[in-house]
Design brief:
about 240 residues; alpha/beta; Rossmann fold
Length: about 240
């Protein structure tokens, strides 16, 4: 069955951190949402690929995700060649998502920038009739979520109502993110620090405040967004 939205992350926990509230919101609105992880995070300092798969499954359930899958493109030096493009193209043609959410063009982790180019290229090539054997399909739009490096957002989604679901998804990643009541005997990392966990909330509160919401998630569109009703963009209507 086709998807309305497919969120693609380089490592398990990327999309949950960056746009988990948006995915939960869309799911509650009756949209079919999918998550595709391009690696299992096998090069990560903490946890194992097997553990991260289990965590990803629990996180997707918390967000109401309909489809979850993994590819093996190599954590720590993400491969972006013809074979990887073809695998991603086949996933896009199988799920036929209207919207794809993926990494931003530049980010702290080099794999994220590589993934941006891979996702953008695959979304285009998927629409070419002579690329591959399956019927062509191209998503209507591909937007970037914010991970580490900030950017000027094209729009911000109010995720106040689904913030608890996002926190539940983040709690599922016990090997990666700081858990106040859990002490794991593993090396310290930036992502596993209490400060990083607070920064996730701080960023969401900052972008939420910009749109008069408690929590917001920012996104980037490479192309202008078409609007049929400008008044629909006015906060609170015309009161």
């Amino acid at each position: 069955m086709s998807l309305d939205v497919l969120a693609i992350g380089t490592h398990p926990d990327d999309v949950e951190i960056a746009c988990g509230g948006t995915l939960a919101l869309l799911s509650r609105q009756g949209r079919r949402v999918g998550i595709l992880h391009l690696t299992c995070g096998e090069a990560g300092t903490r946890g194992t690929p097997e553990e991260r798969r289990v965590e990803a499954e629990a996180a997707s359930a918390a967000l109401g995700v309909a489809e979850l899958d993994f590819l093996d493109f190599g954590d720590g030096q993400l491969r972006t060649g013809r074979d990887e493009e073809d695998q991603l193209i086949e996933r896009l043609r199988h799920w036929r998502p209207t919207l794809v959410l993926g990494p931003a063009p530049l980010d702290r982790h080099p794999d994220h920038g590589r993934a941006y180019r891979l996702v953008a290229d695959a979304c285009f090539y998927a629409g070419l009739a002579r690329r591959g054997a399956s019927p062509p399909f191209r998503p209507a739009a591909a937007w970037s979520y914010m991970q580490h490096d900030p950017f000027e957002p094209s729009f911000i989604v109010d995720v106040t109502t689904t913030w608890p679901a996002k926190l539940e998804a983040l709690d599922a990643y016990q090997s990666q993110l700081h858990q106040p009541n859990l002490d794991r005997d593993e090396p310290a990392t930036k992502v596993a620090s209490p400060e990083y966990r607070m920064a996730i909330e701080g960023r969401a509160r900052h972008y939420g405040q910009l749109v008069n919401a408690a929590f917001g998630e920012p996104f980037l569109s490479r192309l202008p967004l078409a609007v049929s009703d400008p008044l629909a963009l006015v906060p609170g209507g015309l009161s």
